[in-house]
Amino acid sequence: MAVKIHTLLLLGLVVSFISVASAISGTATYYTVYTPSACYGYQGQGVMIAAANNALYNNGAACGKMYRVTCTGATNQGVPKPCRGSVTVKIVDRCPGCAANQLDLSQQAFSTIADPAAGKITIDYVQ
């Protein structure tokens, strides 16, 4: 029985390392007008949502996918220690002006993970 528990613990540790290793580092900003969206038109999708950069959006392939977004720090603008944690968001839109690896979060999602006064933060995100 002890061997089975040890094996399960080891497997859990390996899976958690793989999850952390596969996270994408980037930045996040926020927006406040949620409809219409590129994925769902005028159909609301709640407020824990995000717009994807062009590469992630991939001609709509990202629509409906869920991402766990974690604040990792401040950018060179805004408040020095903005982070509050993590949030799970649904991709509902495309952000044509976003840089590579940038997500544009809803204001509610952004304020869950960071002080909105920061305006822009560094993040890690994973599907």
Give me a quick take on this structure.
Residues 1-23 form the signal peptide. Helices cover 24% and strands 32% of the residues. It is α/β, with parallel strands linked by helices.
Helix/strand structural class: alpha/beta
Number of domains: 1
Strand order of the largest sheet: 1-5-2-4-3-6
The CATH class is Mainly Beta
Mean pLDDT: 88
Give the helix tally. 3
Count of individual beta strands = 6
**Name of the CATH superfamily:** RlpA-like domain
Strand content: 25-35%
Which consecutive residue ranges, at least 5 long each, have pLDDT under 50? 6-19
- The assigned CATH architecture is Beta Barrel
Describe the structure.
One of its GO terms (cellular component) is apoplast. Residues 1-23 form the signal peptide. The protein is an alpha/beta fold and 127 residues long. The protein has a single domain (24-126), classed as Barwin-like endoglucanases (Beta Barrel). 24% of the residues lie in helices and 32% in strands. The protein contains three helices and six strands; from the N terminus they run αββαβββαβ. It has a six-stranded mixed β-barrel with strand order 1-5-2-4-3-6.
